[in-house]
Amino acid sequence: MNIINVAKRVKRDIIKFLFKHLNNKFRVWMWRKMGVKIGENCRIHCFSLSPESYLIEIGNDVIITENVYLITHEGSICLFHNENPHMDLFGTIKIGNNCFIGMNSLIMPNTTIGNNCIIGAGSIVRGKIPDNSVAIGNPARVIMTTEKYRSKIYANPILHDYKLLSEEEKKRILLERFAANKKP
To answer: Cα–Cα distance between 162 and 173 in angstroms, integer?
Structure first.
């Protein structure tokens, strides 16, 4: 391995460390410096971006959780490099406003995720996800509207304003509620 490759790897590892351990403002700033168009009030918890990050556009109030990959190029095209060694294939990624992208998801080239969408953990998304949709799976498919998902959440008997509680209060309430569910 030559010194240039080692230097690139060290630089990438330092950025990855900083990305993981520093606050969200730094992560958003870093993505913007890398060319991503990002709206306001976004929370970014992952590091991985395609080199063509300038092909990515993210709306306002978007949460991208850990280990999400935004991929703007078609890597498998290398199988055809014996026919044309210089060809490559790229696509844009657009994520609308007020979206949540679950852990370990892949967002593939030529993907548009509408406003008010939830992408379930582990999903592989390619194509168009309409506004107000919940999509999950491999490949990701729309399974319900966000309004239907909201109704299910609010119908859950364990729903509570936990974020307003101290950790001790939260622990006590959760242990009581789940212990009550275990009794015959």
So the answer is: 9
SS3 70: strand
Half-sphere exposure of 150 (CA within 13 A, CB side): 7
Residue 21 bears catalytic tag: no
pLDDT tens-digit map of 8-63: 777 777 766 766 666 788 888 888 998 999 999 999 988 777 889 999 999 999 99
Say what the pTM is.
0.81
- At 177, the amino acid letter reads R
Q: What sign does the CA torsion over 107, 35, 22, 63 have?
A: negative
Chain segment 48-69, per-residue pLDDT in tens: 778 899 999 999 999 999 999 9
Please, which residues have CB within 8 angstroms of residue 163's CB and are 6 or more apart in sequence? none
Instruction: Give the fold, CATH level 3, of 3-145.
Output: UDP N-Acetylglucosamine Acyltransferase; domain 1 (2.160.10)
User: Rounded CA gap, 20 and 9, in Å?
Assistant: 16
Considering the candidates 21, 45, 73, 81, report the single residue annotated as catalytic. 81
Cα 46 to Cα 2: distance, rounded to the nearest angstrom: 28
Question: Token pair of 139, please?
Answer: 């490949």
- Please tell me the distance from the alpha carbon of residue 134 to that of residue 3, in angstroms, as a whole number: 46
Q: Residues 6 or more apart from 86 whose CB is under 8 A from it?
A: none
Residue 118, both tokens: 């939830």
